[in-house]
Design a protein that fits this description.
The protein is of the alpha/beta class and 299 residues long. The chain contains 10 helices and 15 strands. Strands 3-2-1-4-5-6-11 form a 7-stranded parallel beta sheet, with helices on both faces.
Length: 299
């Protein structure tokens, strides 16, 4: 299979290109600002907000599937007035251009979305096919606009909503907690935002499996192992890493450092994955264990 991965320099993009290569697939990745023209390195430069550039790259490579990871993901920075136009251009307009090109080529498109398209105020779990969108911040709004563009422009789409992603190749909550623990004996972490961590290696395997099917639609995709809070996630990180750092639970309001409002109940219903015959992701604690081994934190 020939696959094109946008945002190949990020955590998920790197895991995808490695997973696909292990499958023996032909993989080309793109990042903004990469050295151009050397496809032997399986990496090209692409600005997804450049419609002509997107069309040219995909028509030249002619993939059978595109996994669209490229996005503005700095949630708080997105709220700054000077960044808002860029955020919408990358996450909404860029996704539209990718979807248009995929439709023209007749190839599959996997769009990586987020739980932030919802407000997290409803009780219970959020189903994969829920359309009760109420994003609380510009990041969530921009990703929702990307979702809607993909759904409108191509039938051959998989929309994956994931959350709390961690893996090699970029800043994430696990790395942040471990770094802070080196200089602090105690950390305050929010306890009232609920969700599930997602290990990029496990997500990549699922996405690769999806690319082999035509089971199109929206899916919630995180690791298994139940739902947790950032506070409990931090405690598990320190437990597995053998760190003695204490964690103090605080509410989002008490924490008070975020510019962008966050959803509190981001518990996603993953049952559609099983219903459609996909292998669920392992327990997030096991994903964390493997990540700590991979990064040399534990043996």
């Amino acid at each position: 299979m020939r696959v094109f991965v946008t945002g190949a320099g990020g955590q998920l993009g790197r895991a995808l290109t490695e997973d696909f290569s292990r499958r023996g697939w032909e993989v080309l990745g793109s990042v903004r600002g990469a050295q151009t023209g050397d496809c032997r390195q399986n990496l090209i430069s692409l600005d997804v907000t450049d419609r002509a550039g997107v069309s040219s790259a995909l028509n030249r490579y002619r993939p059978q599937a595109v996994v669209h990871c490229a996005a503005w993901t700095a949630v708080d920075a997105a709220e700054a007035e000077e960044n808002r136009e860029t955020v919408m251009a990358v996450n909404a307009l860029g996704s539209r251009y990718i979807a248009q090109s995929c439709r023209e080529l007749g190839c599959k498109l996997v769009y990586i979305s987020t739980d932030y398209v919802f407000d997290g105020k409803a009780p219970g779990l959020r189903g994969a096919d829920s359309e009760d969108y109420r994003p609380l911040n510009l990041y969530g709004l921009s990703k929702l606009e990307g979702e809607l563009a993909v759904r409108k422009l191509t039938d051959k789409h998989f929309i994956l909503r994931t959350q709390w992603v961690f893996g090699p190749g970029g800043g994430n909550f696990v790395d942040t907690m471990l770094r802070l623990s080196e200089s602090r004996d105690c950390l305050k972490v929010v306890c009232d935002q609920l969700g599930t961590p997602s290990y990029t290696r496990d997500l990549a395997r699922l996405i690769g499996d999806m690319c082999l099917t035509e089971k199109y639609g929206c899916y919630n995709a995180t690791n298994e192992g139940g739902y947790t809070s950032w506070y409990a996630f931090a405690e598990e990180i320190f437990r597995q890493a053998g760190r003695s750092t204490r964690v103090l639970p605080v509410t989002t309001k008490e924490y008070g450092l975020n510019r962008a409002e966050r959803p509190l109940n981001s518990r996603l219903d993953r049952s559609k994955l099983i219903q459609e015959g996909f292998e669920p992701l392992p327990d997030w604690r096991d994903g964390l264990r493997r990540y700590l081994i991979e990064t040399g934190v534990t043996g």
